[in-house]
Amino acid sequence: MAKSSPTETSAAHTKLATENIGVTDALGVVTDEAKPSGLLTLSSAEMWERFSFYGLQVLLAYYLYYSLSDGGLGLPQPVALGIAGAYGGLVYIAQIVGAWIADRVLAPRYVVLIGGSAILAGHIMLAVVPGLIGLVIGLALIVVGTGGLKVNTTMMVGALYPKGGAKRDAGYAIYYMGITIGAFFGPLLTGWLHQEWGFHVAFGAAAVGMAAGLIQYAIGMGKLPASTAVVPNPLPAQQRVKWMLISLVAIAIIAVAIATGVVRAENISNAVALIVLLAAIAFFTMLLTNKQVTAGERCSVVRYIPVFLMSLVFWTLLFQLFTAFAVYADTKIQLSAGALTIPPTLIVTLESLAVAGITALLAVLWTKSRAARMQPVPKLIIGVVAMAFGAALIVPFSLSSGQSMPLLATIPVMLLFAFGEAMFAPSALSFTAELAPRAANAQMTALYFLTMAGGSTLSGWISGLYQPGAEGQYFSVVAITSFVTIAVLGLAYRVVDTRLRTA
Predict the structure, then answer these.
(1) What DSSP character marks residue 24?
(2) How far apart (Å, rounded) are the C-alpha atoms in residues 125 and 411?
(3) DSSP 3-state assignment of 293?
(4) pLDDT in tens, the chain (503 residues)
């Protein structure tokens, strides 16, 4: 079939735009299938994936450091927190691979299907195989599968709104609401099951949730835009052998590092943090030197650097809920009220529930009022500041010994974290899509998820400094550092943005 000339293609795009039919910026593929059903498919799939992910995440630190008699693995607490943080980091580092595969090898909608299957297999391993073997194989499968699923569902939401604007912001808010619903019910169910029947039954519930999401996605993926079934930048046949060899060498290096003890449980956070740093440098370098990226798009990539660092601060704060705060909830919060005793995991689910409600309200606010005029960066700054206040609010209750924090006092803390998350995450997703070069959309999305990798890893690493009896000092340092850092980054963004606009 003969290819259309640039003039013919441009004319066709103009005609389609006149007829109010969407055209993807990257591919020129008609996306009249981009209806609410497509958003429902992606939101539901991500909801169930987050159900399974957070259903495991909220228990992982406890599983690692609880004694063998309590059903855990009995690891030292600092090591357990480091592993929990590094696991989250590896999950989001895998987004880089998932984005690259969707860009070069296999269409995004199919990468998501395969990734979901790997996640399901990983949760089944955790549920049925006890000990370190089940843990290592299960977590490895979940890391690989999430790498294929999460970045590409996020990217496909952007494909539903090729014209961008307030509708895309609202679409991402609705999509993120699905994330928060899953993040609420997953820990709620697995926390209860762990209390009643132990860790492995709880892990089985996470597997059931992922199975539900996989089935739902398989049924609905045909309603996604046509662009999601196309490989944007197919890998030439002559390069396939080279990339296969690169993959084998990378796997061999990892295997040797583990076998020789270069990477071990005690220093895995350091190793993952180094990978995040090198990957971030490599990604920014590729985006800024890519010949397919225009001069204007390069300015957008430069503008994204302080936003990238803001996101790193945000995720470091949020993932404290699964590292240092998980220990704090287990040891410092009064979990009993009369005859009722709640599991510590329930406190985190309150944050997820609040996020769902606040996100829904904000989605309406951004589209129905003058608040829609608020620029993305102020939203990001407000989000981090709110979470830093949440960390600061823990401090007064941490100065006494024993379980010194009343259960009701955790509510404003969780509300501040929830408001911060609802303000930051959807806006960051949308702003990332807005600044992404047309030729590297998925790579830019993967760069955003790299901040989640860094945040989770830093959270686990910082939590190694958490000491019983010094909880107040710990959260004071976390809060103050967050306030100062976000102020500096907000100023840096303003300087960079002003200079780029006047250049």
Answers:
(1) -
(2) 35
(3) coil
(4) 433 333 333 333 333 333 333 333 333 333 333 345 688 889 889 999 999 998 999 999 999 999 888 899 999 988 899 999 999 899 888 888 888 899 888 999 999 999 999 999 999 999 999 888 899 899 999 999 998 998 899 888 888 887 766 677 777 878 878 887 888 888 889 999 998 899 999 999 999 999 999 998 999 888 888 888 988 888 888 888 888 888 888 888 888 887 888 888 788 888 899 999 998 998 899 899 988 888 889 999 999 999 999 999 999 999 999 999 999 999 999 988 777 778 888 888 888 788 878 888 887 777 765 555 678 899 999 999 999 999 999 999 998 888 889 988 999 999 999 999 999 998 898 888 888 888 777 678 778 878 999 999 999 999 989 988 899 999 999 999 999 999 999 999 999 988 888 86
Write the DSSP assignment of 324-350 as a string of letters.
HHHHHHHHTB--EETTEE--THHHHHH
How many CB atoms neighbour CB 262 within 10 A?
11
Alpha-carbon Rg for the chain, nearest whole angstrom, is 22
Report helix, strand or coil for 30: strand
C-alpha 215/C-alpha 221 separation (Å) is 10
The backbone region for 281, taken as left when phi is positive above 0, alpha when psi lies in -120 to 50, beta otherwise, is alpha
Q: Is the pTM of this model over 0.90?
A: no
Q: Is residue 322 within 8 Å of residue 330, measured between CB atoms?
A: no
Q: Any alpha helices (H) in 19-106, and if so which ranges?
A: 36-65, 77-104
Calpha distance 25→300 (Å, rounded) = 16
Q: Which residue has the tokens 């020129």?
A: 28
Residue owning tokens 């979940």? 142
Report d(CA 133, CA 124) in Å as an integer: 13
* Tokens at 358, concatenated: 């606040």
DSSP state, residue 262: S
C-beta of residue 400 within 8 angstroms of C-beta of residue 381? no
Exposed/middle/buried for residue 185 (C-beta within 10 Å: 0-12, 13-18, 19+): buried
**What are the backbone angles phi and psi of residue 67, rounded to the nearest 5°?**
-70, 165
Identity of the residue numbered 451: T
Give the C-alpha separation, 459 to 269, whole Å.
Answer: 9
For residue 458, which of 146, 62, 86 has the smallest C-alpha distance? Answer: 86
Cβ neighbors of 41 (< 8 A, separation 6 or more) are 216, 217, 220, 221, 223, 224
In angstroms, the CA 351 to CA 476 distance is 21
